[in-house]
Amino acid sequence: MKQREPEKQKSTHGGAGRGQGRKTKDQVAGLRRVNVSLDQGSISRLREIGAGELSLGIRMAAAAVKNGLQEKIMGADTAGTSFWDGILSDVRGLCAEYEGIVVIGGAAVWLQTKKFLGQQFLQTSHDADFYMGLQDFSMLKDIEEVTKNPRLGKHQLIRNGVDFDIYVEKSNDLAVPYEDADRFSEVIEGIRCACREHLLVLKLRAFENRQHSAKGQKDAKDIAKILALLSESEDRKPAALDHLRGEDRKRLKEIADTPKLFQDIAQSNVHLAKQLRGMAKRGLDYVETAHEPESSRPNRVTGSSPGYGGGKKPRQGPDIDY
């Protein structure tokens, strides 16, 4: 009689499947794929916490609950020490060490939002991005361990467990040259960050590259928010819009005409969403007027840029994870 072969014991260590062994942004190992059931509101909030990544948002929320630190996932300042406060502190320290740093990305949007819109529209991130001049970057490399990421066209630094994405003058082909970003930058809460106009240009280029992904949805919300920021006339820099492309108007109008983006930003508060959308429309009016062709534009004060030409060909950057 043929004996039945013993069943092979199932491995509990995972196989060589796709994505096995990759490091996550929060450096967590031993991950296991599970199915969860969530309502749309929870999905949206968790994606915000994880900067567009649902799984990361769930892990960050779980860690905060475990430690009894609700403010850690909200970016609040109730205890004076939070995850986001720690990132801002590190960014502030880097800016003090290297005067040529210009903060871009989510951290810059957060600072500009706090300045012009207030606390109710703030959205934290899990990392920070900045632009550096060649001299400062050379000094940074002598002190810190900096890793080059050729695929994404950037360098990376990890300090105090936080990822910093670094874009370098003449080395990372962003849509805004470093010298322009530096000239139009402004200091908010001790941090030198890109102006609203340049943030708009950079976010548009990022959105083009990943508009059909979760990060692209966050980019769209950031663009909607930046348009609202530009409704405030204080410290506007119309000359900085020189790097917009002609086709950007259509994309900006589509974003400004998408009510759901503003509802998500306002966390389903209908009154706030309507108010924010009205501000974005006014911001779009400013952008369209400031970016008119030089021949049809009336004389205007162009801000602090003596080299503004109005007709400069915009730069096209690589597929940058901005």
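the 2nd protein, sequnce then structure:
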Amino acid sequence: MNKIEFEKKIYEFEKLKSTNDWMIENLKKINFNEGNIVFTLNQSDGRGMRNSKWFSEKNKSLTFSLLLKPNFLKLDYLFDLSICVSISIIEVLHKINNNFKLKWPNDIYFDKYKVGGILIENQINKNKLEKSIVGIGLNINNSNFTFLENSSSLFLISKKKYKIKDIMLCILEKIEERYNDLICGGYEKLKKKYLKNLLYFNVFRDYIEKDGNKVNGKICNVDRHGFLIIEFENGHKKKYFHKEIKFI
């Protein structure tokens, strides 16, 4: 397939409940092109996966959504897009500090602290992937997390303030680059980078299964369907989907 160039048109708002919601609500009203963005510095009701909440702080957090049309992807391989976006963000953040990691399935971490998250919502028509709305939230210049446990920001990590829109544009450029890698058959290369940057990869530690059972094992892979694969000390391996296992 031929590489594509994003149309980097930005729909910017003073305040929105959710950038993903706004884009989804306007898909039939506006002819969005691939690479279009909706952006706000004041998101009041952000969402994460499985109806979880994403809290952002006015003028200090980055919240934006990107429209993609990855109809080259098979429905069984939707997690390819998550890998592509995750790696793009990590590569930008590594210019600040090399210790940023990806926490399966969709979070950005620094040490034990959550710094950001990704929410990808797909539009499927006649068993074909038509559009993907990629929502990204990052704590940039936040300094107070008394209401959120185990959270941090670029400012607290680096002791520097950042221009939020500049960070967004850097991420957009990197997503365009890695998205084109994916289009041109570069999944294996992206997957290798993903595992290299995955939090707790190949490290034995404790987890809790959804039935409350405590297990000890190491992350040995994430398959193409997005399942986390954990290997136990006896060599047995088990797959887990979102919310089927908890990190402790």
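The chain has five helices and 14 strands. The longest strand covers residues 113-125.
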